[in-house]
Amino acid sequence: MTCSRFLQLPERGALSVFFTAGYPRLGDTLPTLKALQSSGVDMVEVGFPFSDPVADGPTIQESSLVALRNGMTVATLFEQLRGMRAAGVTMPVLLMGYLNPLERFGPERFFESAAACGVDALILPDMPFDDYLARYKRLFASSGLRPVFLVTSRTEEERIRAFDAESPAFIYVLSSDAVTGGKASVTEATEKFFRRLEAMKLSSRLIVGFGVSDRASFQAVTKHTSGAIIGSAFVRAVSGAQTEEDLQKRISTFIEGVR
Description:
The chain is an alpha/beta fold and 259 residues long.
């Protein structure tokens, strides 16, 4: 099963990067994946663009609009990802996006297509847990994809344990209640939240997102968690790349700065 790729993740300090498919150019999706892997990234989240990404800050919103103008669609994304495993991409690859384009594409068709491409898991920030149980759980099970659930400091322990019981790829820990692209600051309250999660001894890995942008913030949020996700800062770093060589250089330089 594709989920076995998660076993290769380090127990601590896993670096995950989010980027928008079809950005900065339509054909940059697979080259970005390959360059991230060769730069030492542990896991990648590929965002399928949507015109109204409610949880995303201005940087990712703008990248989604550019990708859509470039001609990116869900069907095009699957065409681009179809050859990623044959091209040597061995790290876990997740898709991240919103229910609207998934529903328009067709849920069954979406899950089947993602699995056929070798995608490992799916993050749907606007998927209510009740809807997951009633509608999508069977699709995750039949496709072999794994879900990812988001938690904040306000999420009750009972709910977190319910997420953990579903054997997700990991639990996505929001460093704040804001949208993506802010600056993560590990305050006393944030540290208390991380310690509370750590003390729960969950079966799932805890991966922090929202506001992680550089080496300092990455190291700060991974003291009590398995890893962290960098999104907006990476999208800014590759913005304006005009050639594949330029893209690869920008990616290498950015990841070196984090590691």
